[in-house]
Amino acid sequence: MDVNKIREDFPILKRKINGKRAVYLDSTATSQKPRAVIDAIVNYYENFNANVHRGIYRLSEEATDLYEKSRENIGRFIGARSDSIVFVRNTTEALNLISYSYGRFLNEGDEILTTIMEHHSNIVPWQFLGRKGVKLVFTDINEDGTLNIDDFINKIGKRTKIVTVTHVSNVLGTINDVRELSKIAHDHGAIFIVDGAQSVPHMPVDVEKIGADFLAFSGHKMLGPMGIGVLYGKRDLLESMDPFMGGGEMISEVHTYGSTWADVPLKFEAGTPNVEGAVGLSAAVDYLRSIGMEEVRNHEKGLVSYSLERLGEINEINIYGPRDPEKRGGVISFNFRNIRSERISEHLRKEGIMIHPHDVATILDMDSVMVRSGHHCAQPLMERLNIPASSRASFYIYNDRDDVDTLFDALKKVRGVLKI
Amino acid sequence: MSNDIYMEFILENYRNPKNYGVMDNPTVKKSGANPLCGDDITIYLKIENGKIQDIRFTGKGCAISQASASILTEMVKGKDLEYVKSLGENDLLSALGIELSPARLKCALLSYKVLKDALSGF
Fold first, then answer.
1. Do B16 and A344 touch (CB under 8 A)?
2. d(C-alpha A173, C-alpha A328), whole Å
């Protein structure tokens, strides 16, 4: 994989910030976009823009064709038929859709089993079902940040109707064995939902192989535009569910006092869809496919190994999540902890200062190194780790060892800037 | 206003905060947090004869939030309540003397909000 060649494809990476090469290490939040994706969107608006599915004229037919071919292409990327692909805004909307439409089948006393390492988007939609007496149960993690399988097995039971798990943690980087979890879920008669926001962009994912009944992911984290995401669902499940939102596009017939629904997937796509987004995401999928998802995964694994090695050189840095690159995606969260410098007052020295991630991010930004800092939309996990926040560096196809070195050099300056 | 948010005055208050620590039997004690950052501040006040006789704080957070709390306690210690209540956000910000981005402004103002909250009944 030729990172220099790949970088050439990303216009934004040519930008200098403070006169320095931009080191973008926040692809877990959103990825940058290659020229091919930007061009596909421009091409759509310059040559094919019309509303889809209803027009009888040529342009509308062409726009519809582009939209549906995008669905097919994106479906193929995860081993799914196009009629099981619902376009949504993002992972969050996909999970809310399931909570709303499938959640209707759950009753008081039923349980939803999830994990403590989830993003808020895989927690809050399920809390909504608490109103009708559905209980949310969290699986704990082990000390190394992997999922505690024994705890998972202890907590699953007859009442468990839904198991919903992130494939890759956006904080710990932990790659969960979703295939195994799927088997356990299905043995207990529960449906199995995978939050693929951090896996689909970074490794080969096949819905059959992982045993997902539903898989949710976002376009903007995988080189595509913002505002387009995907909900994959098993067809029989999607067919059994009521619509999420009502309006145009999702109906078969509308009468004054009642309506019937369009077939899946259009039943779940009320209103004019994001055609530009679908076309852009399809171009992103083509781009990733041209590199190969195995290659993407191996590249990130290499960067993680190298970073863990180099971060280990700074004693006061604590890293969260598995040390084994085989079990970790391209995400590294860390903190400067227990600083007991002579230069801080005695009462602070007793406990040791944690340098706040916002200070770390501000100081790294002085060298144009962009990392995330905060709770990463995973407050329950922060509580579990007993930290208020962390810094997080994450990698993608356009990052290389030079980026890791620049990060490392900048991290070495942090204590100096704060003079502690 | 300085572009360098980590200038010596700020760092000194971060590393060696003034009026830091728990107070026994305060007249009022208030806590506040910035959930987005994980910053938290607790302020203890001893109020007598319409004056802030003593003030202490404890907290965890970024250099800006902790230095700002230290500087604020110095601004109000021994002062009349009337005066302290008349202080606005800008009075604290100009005392800090640094240019802050919107995200860091919240850090800088956390202690101010907690103090205002603590004084709301007086």
1. yes
2. 5
